[in-house]
Amino acid sequence: MTISQGIADNDRPPPVRPVFSAVTWKEIAHLVSNFPVAIVGFVYAVVMVSGTGGLSVTAVGLPLLSCGLYLSRQLGRLERTRARALLGARVEEPSPIPGPKRAGGFFPWLWTSIKDPVGWRTVLYQLVRLPWGVFTFTVALTGLFVLWPVLPYVVRVLANADRAMVRGLLSPSDELERRIAELESDRGVVIDTAAADLRRIERDLHDGAQARLVALAMGLGLAKEKLLEDPEGATAMVDEAHGEVKLALQELRGLARGIHPAVLTDRGLDAALSAVASRCAVPVRVAVDLPGRPAEAIEGIAYFTVSELLRNISKHAMARSASVDVWKSGERLLIQVADDGRGGASTRSGSGLAGLAERLDSVDGVLVVDSPAGGGTTVTAELPWRA
Question: What count of other Cβ atoms lies within 10 Å of the Cβ of residue 263?
Fold first, then answer.
């Protein structure tokens, strides 16, 4: 079973009906407003291109051109907003231009800004919109008095042309640009997750093994002082210290297992997930059917995903049994963890599953939760294989 990797981008309007609907009135509003909006955009584009073109041979010309293209981007954003509101068009926002620091300095950033394809396509959009805006304004306005019976059909044809123009000139240029925008968002999630993990490790070390080792050092120091005066007391203290050493080692092994378990590196997901399942509060059936091993990073994410889900089952599910199934489908790694508990789990903001979903999303993964109240919980995760 494979999770769908995306929802179809179906933003086609409903079928045209002779009776004027809310959709038709919105389309009329868009066509009528094309004219004043097109005048503003056309004037800005002409002034920006001619003004910065004449100054391009001076020191201020190129920075002004960069600023002009940036403002063109903002006009494009307003047009996309108008198209979404009145035409119902689904148009993604293009990725922003990286700042001077990330671009490697002022001049690399300036050159990137001047070459900005989004800004130039917006300028082209503003230049061609004036004659089109005059045409649509005239047809829509006069059609209300002349073409009333067939106006919804005429409006739909013109509105579809507007939708195509917006998608063609104002949407992200290609799939790569959309992926860049997604990765920019995912990068923040990865950074926050890594920082949270480091804080957790630091806290566990400070409150657990470090505290025990400090107490052990103090105990051994006292035992050393009593060694000649009270050998029996010193022996008892050494025995106590020996017990503390065992506990400290146990805590360090647990911490190391939480960072990256040795069994995962040595024997793969099957053995590692079986070890995790053996520590769950309820009986867990584990079935791993993989032709090989995925990429090391993906394998680690899969391990910690199952660990977190089994931890949730132990703490919250009130289940009698659980199961873990792992298999490969195409170039994706599929994980399904199910229990027969009370259900009601969700990925709403602030929940543990929401954080888990963000982690998977940062590596192009998907998390789907099916958890009806009283009907158990099934969580399906999909990750790229990337072996």
Answer: 17
